[in-house]
Design brief:
single chain, about 425 residues, alpha+beta, 11-stranded mixed beta sheet, 5-stranded antiparallel beta sheet, 12 helices, globular
């Protein structure tokens, strides 16, 4: 393999990747030179194999403080059984250590997948085409993401140091080699940042664009400040919706930290199952997952609940990031019985909280053009894709160029339905 200026095997060094050994043991090692740092890559079969303080030192570095990339969140997924070989999400986290000291320099959440569920960047058609194209199985594949969590963030977490940029480029450049050595069909890095998206392009990854609905904080001091930037008709509609809830029999409470008690998690899990049973038929997250999050991540959670006669009847789960509030799950005891309650708990309460805390944005996820009229505008999301079959990669690249034009046009058209006054986007 030819070496780039920041990815070098070094004098007299050979690539030590052994595909047969990797397949057998689930681990492979390679030595790289990133500027002055000797970096050794390996895979681990569980987040528990990486010390919390080491992983989080990288999470605190180049990766940014997305709550889902913390060691404890990924650990909750694994320990609760929500993620694992049984569910088709086998951890194969990538770690990059300094060769001489063993110090963790970078890491990347990585999973060996036997299906394409719970990812929110859809590639089922690719799986079918891959087999038809070359008679090869698409699965297993590698997926770098946070399981069941379509939230934007760096996937390559790099410890802050003078060599951080070089290490990130070195590890990114080695990813195709990791895929080839493991003998899987592909690697998909989903919901990454625009910067990482561009870095991976230089490493041979294809670029894909998706769409979600995000609310942006334009320096508002109050919810009324936000309403003041909307068209009169839209502003009136939101006020009417909020009034319907405010004058109903339910009371809204925002809970975080120690305010969230086991009874709240028990109720929310029931609501979560109500939603999954009605819409999708499969619950990805176990009850144990919510219990562990309640014990270990309560300060990272905003749980908005609705009470009627002291009974919890609905809830919306959010995670608090350094620069974003991430809306994740919603559920209600009686389905859609309470008019406008879903909008209040999921959208308006999130906006109010973000304004109070000075958070720049709220991510409300994909689907639902109804979000636009409530201030959540269509926003591009990014993913990166690498295939070992080069002819298939060329075919997908051609498809993605057409898809990109369509997606950008869709974002533009939907953006024209913005509720904001002209020039106030």
């Amino acid at each position: 393999m030819e070496a780039s200026p920041l990815v070098s095997a070094g004098p007299g060094k050979k690539n030590t990747c052994n595909p047969a050994r990797w397949k057998r043991r689930g681990i492979c090692k390679a030595t790289r030179e990133a500027q002055d740092a000797q970096v050794q890559l390996s895979l681990v079969n569980s987040i528990q194999d990486v010390p919390t303080e080491e992983w989080d030192a990288c999470w605190n570095g180049k990766g940014g403080k997305n709550p889902f990339l913390q060691h404890k969140f990924l650990s909750c997924l694994e320990r609760s059984g929500s993620v694992g070989k049984r569910t088709g999400w086998q951890p194969q986290h990538l770690v990059a250590k300094e060769t001489t000291t063993g110090k963790l320099l970078a890491c990347m959440p990585l999973y060996l997948k036997s299906h394409s569920y719970g990812e929110y960047v859809f590639d089922h058609s690719w799986a079918s085409a891959y087999f038809q194209y070359g008679g090869e199985n698409y699965y297993p594949k590698l997926q770098s993401c946070v399981p069941f969590t379509p939230a934007t963030g760096n996937r390559m977490l790099v410890r802050d140091s003078p060599e951080a940029e070089g290490i990130a480029k070195a590890v990114s450049g080695a990813l195709p080699e990791v895929v080839d050595a493991l003998g899987v069909s592909s690697l998909h890095v989903t919901f990454n940042t625009p910067q990482e998206w561009e870095e991976l392009k230089h490493a041979g990854f294809l670029q894909r664009i998706g769409m979600q609905y995000h609310w942006k904080n334009n320096g508002y001091n109050t919810f009324d400040d936000f309403l003041g930037e909307l068209q009169q008709k839209k502003r009136k509609s939101i006020r009417q919706e909020r009034k319907k809830v405010a004058t109903s029999s339910v009371k809204i409470h925002r809970l975080t930290g120690e305010q969230i008690q086991p009874k709240h998690w028990d109720a929310f899990y029931r609501f979560y199952r109500n939603t999954t049973d009605r819409k999708w038929g499969q619950a990805y997250l176990s009850k144990e997952f919510f219990r562990l999050v309640g014990e270990e991540m309560a300060n990272d959670v905003l749980l908005v609940v609705a009470l009627e006669d002291e009974e919890i009847v609905a809830g919306a789960l959010n995670f608090i990031g350094e620069d974003c509030l991430f809306g994740r799950n919603w559920g209600c005891k009686y389905g859609d019985y309470y008019k406008f309650l879903h909008f209040e708990l999921c959208y308006y309460q999130a906006i109010e909280y973000a304004i109070e805390k000075g958070l720049p944005r709220v991510e409300a996820g994909a689907q639902g053009e109804h979000k636009i009229q409530r201030g959540y505008l269509p926003t591009a999301t990014y993913s990166s894709h690498y295939f070992t079959n080069k002819e298939f990669q060329k075919a997908v690249d051609k498809f993605l160029h057409h898809e990109k034009r369509q997606m950008l046009q869709t974002i533009e058209i939907l953006g024209e339905a913005s509720p904001f006054k002209q020039g106030r986007l």
